[in-house]
Write a structure and sequence with these properties.
Oligomer: single chain
Largest sheet: 7 strands, mixed
CATH architecture: Alpha-Beta Complex
Structural class: alpha/beta
CATH topology: Spore Coat Polysaccharide Biosynthesis Protein SpsA, Chain A
Helix content: 25-40%
Radius of gyration: 20 Å
CATH superfamily: Spore Coat Polysaccharide Biosynthesis Protein SpsA, Chain A
Order of helices and strands: HHEEEHEHEHEHEEEHEHEH
Number of helices: 9
Shape: globular
C-alpha cells in the first residue's frame, strides 16, 4: 500500500520518467509582478474561467521533465492564486518588481531563495505567464531537444513576421538600413529564415545563469513554435485574440 501511494504521486512518476530518459532535473520559475500597465492585474485576469498565470502553472505541472514550479512575485493576490494552482511562492522584493525591473534580476533572487530552502536547481526554465498558449507539450519537447543538442541554453522562437534585413532606422531624419542597403530590395524568397524570441521558454543551468546573468549563452538551442502559440499578452487586443483562439479550439474539440 505504501508503494501504491507513492506511485500515485505525480512527482514520483516524474522522477522515474526522468531517470529512465537520462534527463536532469528542471525547475520552472514563473515571474509575475502585480503592477502591469497595459492591462491592470494582467497576470490574474480571468481567461475562460482560469486566471492567466494558471495556464503557465498547469503547463509546468503537466510536463514530465519539470519537477518543481515556483512563482516569484511581490503581489499578495498573485501569491494566493499561484498557491491555489499548486505553485510554490517566492517573495520577490518590491525593488525587483518595478516597471523597469529586469527578469534576470528577479530570477537571480529566486534562485538564491530556492537555495536557502533546499538547494539550487541544476537547470531551470523561465516561463513568463504572458504566454498562455505555451503548453506542456512545448515544454516537454524543448527540454528534451535541449539536452539532446548539447547546447548551453535554449530559447523559444517563432518565425519573424517581418524580416530584419528589410528594416531601417531613422538617424537624424534620414533612413539607415539595420543590416545593409543591398538586402533591402532583395526578394523575400532569397533571404535566410529569420526568427524572433517569443518569450515563452528559456532554459539554462543555474550555475551558468548566475555566472552570466543572461539567458542567451551560446550555443543556444532554438525551439521553434508557431505564431499562434507564440501569442504574448500585452494589451486588450492580445486578450481578444486569445479569447478567439480558445473559442476556436474549444469548437474543434466539440466543447
Amino acid at each position: 500500500m505504501i508503494l501504491f501511494g507513492k506511485l500515485r504521486s505525480r512527482k514520483f512518476f516524474k522522477t522515474l520518467f526522468k531517470r529512465d530518459c537520462g534527463l536532469k532535473n528542471v525547475t520552472a520559475i514563473i515571474t509575475a509582478r502585480g503592477g502591469s500597465k497595459g492591462i491592470p492585474r494582467k497576470n490574474i485576469v480571468d481567461i475562460h474561467g482560469v486566471p492567466l498565470i494558471a495556464y503557465t502553472i498547469l503547463a509546468a505541472h503537466n510536463c514530465q521533465y519539470i519537477d518543481e514550479c515556483y512563482v516569484t512575485t511581490e503581489d499578495a493576490e498573485i501569491k494566493a492564486v499561484s498557491k491555489q494552482y499548486g505553485a510554490q511562492v517566492i517573495n520577490r522584493p518590491p525593488e525587483l518588481a518595478g516597471d523597469h525591473s529586469l527578469s534576470q534580476e528577479a530570477v537571480v533572487d529566486a534562485l538564491k531563495q530556492i537555495a536557502k530552502r533546499k538547494k539550487t536547481p541544476e537547470y531551470f526554465a523561465l516561463l513568463q505567464p504572458t504566454s498562455p498558449l505555451r503548453n506542456s507539450t512545448h515544454l516537454h519537447d524543448c527540454i528534451k531537444y535541449f539536452f539532446q543538442s548539447g547546447c548551453l541554453s535554449a530559447i523559444s522562437v517563432t518565425e519573424a513576421e517581418h524580416h530584419p534585413w528589410k528594416m531601417v532606422l531613422s538617424d537624424n531624419g534620414l533612413l539607415v538600413p539595420v543590416i545593409d542597403s543591398r538586402t533591402l530590395e532583395k526578394p523575400r524568397q532569397q533571404l535566410p529564415k529569420a526568427f524572433r524570441v517569443n518569450g515563452a521558454i528559456y532554459i539554462i543551468s543555474s550555475k551558468l545563469f548566475l555566472e552570466k546573468e543572461s539567458f542567451f549563452v551560446e550555443p543556444v538551442y532554438p525551439y521553434e513554435m508557431n505564431r499562434e502559440d507564440s501569442l504574448d499578452i500585452d494589451n486588450y487586443e492580445d486578450l481578444n485574440q486569445l479569447d478567439s483562439i480558445l473559442q476556436k479550439r474549444a469548437q474543434v474539440r466539440g466543447e
